[in-house]
Amino acid sequence: MNDCSKLLQHLSVTHFCDVYPKIRVLSASIFPITQKHRILGRAFTVKAFGSAHNLLRALSHTKKHDVLIVHTEKTIKALGGEIYATIAKRQKLAGIIIDGSCRDPDGICAANIPFYARAIYPVVARSKKIGQWQKVITCGGVKVYPGDIIFGDRSGIIVLSLKEFRRLLPLALNAVQKELGIFANLKRGLSLPKVFSWIDFD
Question: CA 58 to CA 70: how far, in whole Å?
Answer without folding.
Answer: 10
